[in-house]
């Protein structure tokens, strides 16, 4: 920037000099490190007219007023004083412009020269510095090469060291190879010894082969004998095969016979079925039997499940018939044996019956009523305790009322082994369940003792109590009870209540 300013100043000075002409005086300007020399025009000996024209030119070309302020004010006045000289002024200006451009070119040339000379200078200095650097590098290289030689000598010594070591190793190896040679010699001796032995063994082998060859011949003769035997055997086998084929023929004839037999058997089976149908026919009639006693009288002697038809009813009921106990013909009303069925139930269950006749069950109060009121029945109560002791209670006359009288109990004519006194309550005791309390206790015996029964208050028996599988010293009021046989705490394994006609 400063440089540009200086150049501009120089240019202005030149312009002034060109415009004013003749008189020149040198001026020095110091700008930073650079000094500039200007030759400025002297105005005293010039005609005022010419001066003004020149300075006018200067005023036009110069940049903003700041720099040549002093020279501007005067030309401004001159212009105003000489406005008629315009044309001449224009010519002058043109030539001045030309001179200016020439001067500028000169300046440019000068600058270029200067630059070139500066470049040369720079080149020269660069060469100097480069040579200095080269020298330095040279010295460096020298020192480095000295270092390298030192290193080389080191390496050399190392290599020497290595070679000496290798020589030592070589010596060792040669020793080792010597040892190996000795060893190999020994081995070869051993091998020759072994080959001697081998030849000896070969001789023995030959001897053995000769012996075995003899034996082999013997074996071959045996083999021939065996082959002959085999041939004979195969002959036998073929003979047997012939027999077998004939026997298969016989067997096919047998099969035919068997087919004939199966036909006859089937015919027989058909006949048997027919017979069964004939024999089944009376069974249909069983449905009209009203209890197990009638079934027994019809000739059936197997205990099991049968259907009976209740009097004045179309209903058939499946019951378990005990055809063995004391002459059989018993229709089972109640049975317990393993506690698999829950007996703590409501009125409706006891009315309709529950469980299966094949296992634990209660036949149902309606059925019991209908059955026992159709004719006179006797009741048999059979008990078995945990030790396997059996006992029974028998009642010559037994029936229960209908639901309208709460299935009241009527049992008379007691006898039996399960106690000297009847464990059933007296005649007229109504039936109670957990949901229908008809007992004569302020308590609810059915809930206290569990199950449905003819409770009084609460009475000496309840065969529908809880089935306790194991005996216990604890007195249980809700277990199965037949007081006059075993006290309040009977642990049964089985109970059965069953009826048959009193006149059986
Ligand atoms: C060779 O070098 C080993 C270790 O590098 C050194 O212990 C031994 O003394 C050297 N031997 C000679 C002969 O320089
Ligand atoms: C085959 O049956 C015939 C008679 O039918 C009998 O003579 C012969 O011995 C039988 N053969 C065998 C191998 O049983
Ligand atoms: C009880 O006995 C019945 C009839 O024999 C049988 O089906 C059932 O599995 C038994 N239940 C138990 C718990 O033993
Ligand atoms: C069966 O019905 C007849 C006539 O209707 C009657 O006389 C008899 O008493 C009834 N029997 C029973 C057990 O209800
Ligand atoms: C039957 O029992 C019910 C209550 O469970 C009672 O109201 C009714 O009077 C009883 N019937 C007879 C005839 O005692
Ligand atoms: C106006 C001015 O200064 N013109 C001059 C230009 O240069 C020639 C010769 O170089 C002079 O003759 C002019 O007077």
Automatic annotation (TrEMBL):
Its main location: secreted. GO terms for cellular component: extracellular region. Residues 191-243 form a coiled coil. PROSITE patterns: FIBRINOGEN_C_1, FIBRINOGEN_C_2. Residues 58-85 are annotated as: Disordered. It is found in: Secreted. The keyword Secreted applies. Residues 1-21 form the signal peptide. Residues 283-503 form the Fibrinogen C-terminal domain. InterPro entries: ANG-1/2/4, FIB_ANG-like, Fibrinogen-like_C, Fibrinogen_a/b/g_C_1, Fibrinogen_a/b/g_C_dom, Fibrinogen_CS. SMART domains: FBG. It holds the Pfam family ANG-1. GO terms for biological process: angiogenesis; blood coagulation. Keywords: Angiogenesis, Coiled coil, Disulfide bond, Glycoprotein, Secreted, Signal. NCBIfam families: GGGWT_bact (NF040941). This is Angiopoietin-2b. The gene is angpt2b.
